[in-house]
Amino acid sequence: MGLLTRLLTARSSPVLLRLPPYLSALCIIAGAAWLLVLPLEGNPRATYISENAILPGQVHTYFGGSEHNVFRAYRQEVWQLSQRSDHDRIAGLEQILQENGLKAAAQPYSWQVAGEEIAGTNVYGLIQGPRADATEAMVLIAAWRNFAGDINYSGVALVLTLARYLKRWSIWSKDIVVLIPDDSTYGPEAWVSAYHSTTSTVTSTRNITSLPIKAGALQGAVAIDYPAGPWGQRFEKIDVVYDGINGALPNLDLLNTAINIANNQMGVESTLHNVPNHQDNYLDRLTMLTKGLITQSVGHATGPHSAFMPYHIDAITLRTVGDGWHDEMTLGRTAESMIRSINNLLEHLHQSFFFYVLLGPYSFVSIGNYLPAAVIVAGGLTVTALAMWIRSGKAAPSPAPGKKQVPEKLEVLTDGDVVAVVPKSELETHERKMFLPALILVGVHLGGFVPLYLLNNISAPNLPLTFYNISAVTLILPLYLATHIARHTSPQQLQTLQSFSLLLLGATLSTLATLNFSLAFLVGLLCSPLSFARPLPRLPLLQFPTKATPTTPKPTTDPVAARLAISLPAILLYIAISPPAVLLALNAYFGKPLAWTLLEMAKGWCAQGVWTSLVIWAVWWPAWVVGGTVMLSGTFRAA
Ligand SMILES: *[C@@H]1O[C@H](CO)[C@@H](O)[C@H](O)[C@H]1NC(C)=O
Ligand SMILES: CC(=O)N[C@H]1CO[C@H](CO)[C@@H](O)[C@@H]1O
Q: Which positions, given as ranges, span the membrane (predicted)?
């Protein structure tokens, strides 16, 4: 009881009531600072391989010598196939696989996205492991067109050479699938989804035929992206690409195995995110962290391996970079060593981490160390939400004009020898009118599905125009809602609305953080100013001529300039953190045409199953609209 009395007296203390905004700000700063602290000396852990069976680089590789001639012949053949029609090329590739004793098949697939067709045919062959019981398999991939869209002559030739070479070995305890998808994103996506379903998927937007040949559960996949021209090209480094769809990552053991084999066994420098000369200093680790954060939050495929991650198949892409003195045989031996390491596994990779942030080829932080950053930022939103909730219960109804203000009733609380005198209004919570705020919140959230639907269904040439229209409506919507809502809601209801919105946002982002940390963190940071959205003072500039009843302007104490000084920066910041503005800014930063970005986003949502659009339009956008409505409602409130 003593505590209660003390709390009751304390809660009207002005210090305590002012605390929540500072607490929110502290959370946001702490969350951002957390990430900056991660790359500091002593925080990252050195990578290590925890799965003993994988034995990276412990096996002698034999790929080389006479295989070089075979490779050169295949490269010539691949070049010739590239000059023929698609149909002949598919048949040609299938024939090469069959000649080498593989069971081969083709899989046509197509998607309809934004009025455009994504179509192609995957070719694949199966090497049945002599010691395999058809329950497990691994995949070796070289897409016909690499991630940059170039024909992957050397990569395809290398994989064909490897298929011939691996077929002759008798050590395989797993089947090997050699996959040559048409492109690096949608081909693997179609193949792996068909692998995990029994029938063809035919809907109005997709036609993915089933696979005639299948093996056991896929244990791992290694893709080669070697875009050397038809006359070959030596390379300098191997970039290990690891990000999967929606920011899923392969088991850290597989990634370490690749880096280990390249660096220690083959003597090829390996990089991540193409960061050259990583010196393992703070700045380089921070660069790596930032690049990883951006790639993961976008959530799109980064190579042929990405499609495998949602099916819990560990996969990576080895992409050659630069002009150096390593030749295709080195890359072939790296792939051979990878395949043999996976072959050694007795079970699915499970020992090491699936949730990690890499700071360099040899250092990482695990989920326990980085997750708090996103959770603290989301916590900052929740703190404000709770503060708003308490306040909305406290807001005393303003005395109606003309009515005499009644002196406040006081309540005396006694507890032993402590006596507290508290105004009675402090002890009762006013009944909150929650229906309208809840209705508005649900309405705005449902509204977010309109841009989501439009941007994923409108035909490609109309996408930019649609986006500009959505942007315009987005900017006007808070203004519109504010003018209409301000007349019908009390300040208390607005606080309840803001409280609900921030509470939902905070909870969604904390959940999202465990699935896609980077996306949750970035959206959390962009939404954090919404914690501080409060009704702005009335502005003459923004007054619409309301109703017919002329109101005599009330003399105000603070000059217009002072009110503008508060409102203008707030409104500008508010516009700057809107989803359309951020999308446009990012687009300009990366120097891509808007039409390209929008089409990629639509393809990502429709054909790759990327959720980023959903998070933008159904989580971030509604929170932003509600924040603006609360802010602008002050401007339109009848004086
Ligand atoms: C789906 O693709 C297959 C193979 O290309 C084709 O035979 C079939 O007609 C297609 N189905 C539809 C509904 O387009
Ligand atoms: C036909 C084609 O796109 N060839 C490309 C293969 O990759 C090399 C290296 O990236 C390019 O220079 C070629 O133009």
A: 20-40, 370-390, 434-454, 466-482, 502-532, 564-590
Judge if the beta carbon of residue 209 lies within 6 A of ligand 1.
yes
Ligand 1 within 6 A of 108 CB? Answer: yes
DSSP label at 304?
A: T
230 CA from centroid of ligand 2 (Å): 8
Nearest CA to ligand 2 atom 12: 229
Kindly identify the ligand whose nearest atom is closest to the C-alpha of 149: 2
Task: Kindly list the structural domains of the chain, giving each domain's residue range(s) and its CATH number in brackets, ordered by start.
Answer: 19-39+371-396+430-541+559-636 (no CATH), 52-361 (3.40.630.10)
Distance CA(461)–CA(463), nearest Å, equals 6
Nearest to 488 by CA among 416, 436, 441: 436
Q: For residue 226, how far is its CA from the centre of ligand 2 (angstroms)?
A: 10
Asked if the model's pLDDT at residue 264 lies above 90, the reply is no
User: Which residue, chain included where needed, has tokens 């994504």?
Assistant: 118
Using the mean position of ligand 1's atoms as its centre, give its distance from the Cα of residue 205 in Å.
Answer: 12
The DSSP string of 193-205 is HHHT-SS-EE-SS
Percent of the chain with pLDDT over 70: 85
SS3 109: strand
Tell which atom from ligand 2 comes closest to the C-alpha of 227.
Answer: 7
Please tell me if the CB atom of residue 151 comes closer than 6 angstroms to any atom of ligand 2. yes
Q: Which atom of ligand 2 is nearest to the CA of 148?
A: 10
pLDDT at position 150, please?
76
pTM: 0.86
Q: Which long-range contacts (CB under 8 A, 24 or more apart) does 115-119 make?
A: 115/458, 115/459, 115/460, 115/461, 116/459, 116/460, 116/599, 118/186, 118/603, 118/607
Strands (E), 283-375: 314-326, 356-360, 363-366
Max intra-chain CA distance, the chain: 102
| Shortest-distance ligand to the CA of residue 90 | 1
CA distances to 71, 75, 152, 317, 444 from 231, rounded to whole Å, are: 11, 8, 12, 23, 58
pLDDT of residue 413: 61
**Counting Cβ atoms within 10 Å, is residue 602 exposed (0-12), middle (13-18) or buried (19+)?**
buried
- DSSP state for residue 400 in the 8-state scheme: P
